[in-house]
Amino acid sequence: MSIYTPDTIQCNGETFKLFISRDQIQQRVAEIGRQIDEDYQGKKPIFIGVLNGSFIFLADLMRHVSIPCEMDFFKLSSYGDEKVSSGKVTKLKDLDAQIENRHVLIVEDIVDTGLSMSYILRQMKALNPASVKVVTLLHKPGAGKYDVKLDYVAFEIPTLFVLGYGLDYAQEGRNLAQIYVLDDTRPASN
Ligand code: IMP
């Protein structure tokens, strides 16, 4: 069966339209994978996927990397079922791997206000890794309230609510192979 790539979808009673196509996503993911390959020559980085949203991006990204590498997951509370941030971050699953003296690449689906990423960076840096860099599929620069350095960004987007390719709306839509935006294009946060 072929991969499902419609132009519009319904999710939890709302209409979303195509925003970033499968081809565009795959091309950027491949470029970032090649860049990481070059930047980490001679090293063995550990990719840390932030659950749940990063799982598809992480899986695709790692398959474009040819240097030796490892992976682990870290889980934070999400938006819940809302389209705007609750402003609170809770750790739901800690790392299993030891990251002291390791080269860490944190892999996120989206950096919105930067609250989650600033929390993750604090947690990681306390474990004395050799280096920490951030890879994010999406970045909403307009929403940035927390100053976080993003090392690899696949797409910068306006402050709109999106889903697909790992990102959800009330837990649905993660399976979509493309990224969709809410059809009424209202700003998602203020
Ligand atoms: P931040 O802490 O405000 O940067 O938000 C980061 C987290 O919020 C992401 O890891 C997502 O889980 C969620 N999020 C932010 N914007 C969106 C969106 O447009 N769609 C779905 N989830 C989002």
Describe the SSE topology:
Layout: E1 8-11, E2 14-20, H1 22-39, E3 46-51, H2 55-62, E4 70-76, E5 91-93, E6 103-111, H3 115-125, E7 131-139, E8 152-156, E9 162-163, E10 179-182
Parallel strand pairs: 3-4, 3-6, 6-7, 7-8
Antiparallel strand pairs: 1-2, 2-10, 4-5, 9-10
Helix pairs in contact: 1-2
The structure holds inosinic acid (IMP).
Inosinic acid (IMP) is lined by residues 53, 78-79, 85, 108-117, 161-163, 167, 188.
Task: Compose a concise summary of this entry.
The protein is α/β, with parallel strands linked by helices and 190 residues long. 19% of the residues lie in helices and 29% in strands.
Describe this structure in words.
- The mean pLDDT is 92.
- This protein has one domain (14-182): 3-Layer(aba) Sandwich (Rossmann fold).
- The N and C termini lie far apart (41 Å).
- The strands form two sheets. Strands 5-4-3-6-7-8 form a six-stranded mixed beta sheet, sandwiched between helices.
- It is an alpha/beta fold and 190 residues long.
- The protein is built from three helices and ten strands.
- It has helices spanning 22-39, 55-62, 115-125; strands at residues 8-11, 14-20, 46-51, 70-76, 91-93, 103-111, 131-139, 152-156, 162-163, 179-182.
- 19% of the residues lie in helices and 29% in strands.
- Bound molecules: inosinic acid.
